[in-house]
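User: Fold this; tokens only.

Assistant: Input:
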Amino acid sequence: MNITAFIGSSRAGSNSEQLTDYVLDGINYVKIDLKNLTIEPINDLRHDNNGFQFVDDDYDQIIHAFLTSDLVIFATPIYWYSMSGIMKNMVDRLSQAIRDERFPQLKEKLQTTEALVVAVGGDDPYIKGLPMIQQFQYIFDFLKMPFSSYIIGEANKPGEIIHDEQALMQASILNKKLKVRIYPI
């Protein structure tokens, strides 16, 4: 099973990245740190006669990750009760990517690529993060991507996620489930 984790935090070693690392402990995966990529905002040309135009940035790395992954994790801090801006920028560009003639198989491949969300916030995230999870559900529904699970953690300052026993337990359970699927006995 090929797994990619999209890390949407602007902070290195963020709580959402750490929680994702717990989920994937002992499992081979590719980590794509969105803050280290140049991804231009979408220029919505869906209804223009010429359609979307080629954008010379790093977004093809995102497309390649989707095309080669069986499971993708969207790891994001909860910023202003939603996903981070860099994560949202990546998601917005999917509108262009699924219409990109260079990748005619992308839309079909997404339908078999399982999605997970790992999110961490500091302002009552178990309640206030739920609308963001619903937003991801709508995104995955639109793309027809199977959305199998999410974990919300509570942390604010760097490293505080280690104090959220509930999130760590959920990460451990998900880790065991993934290992059974990847390395069946």
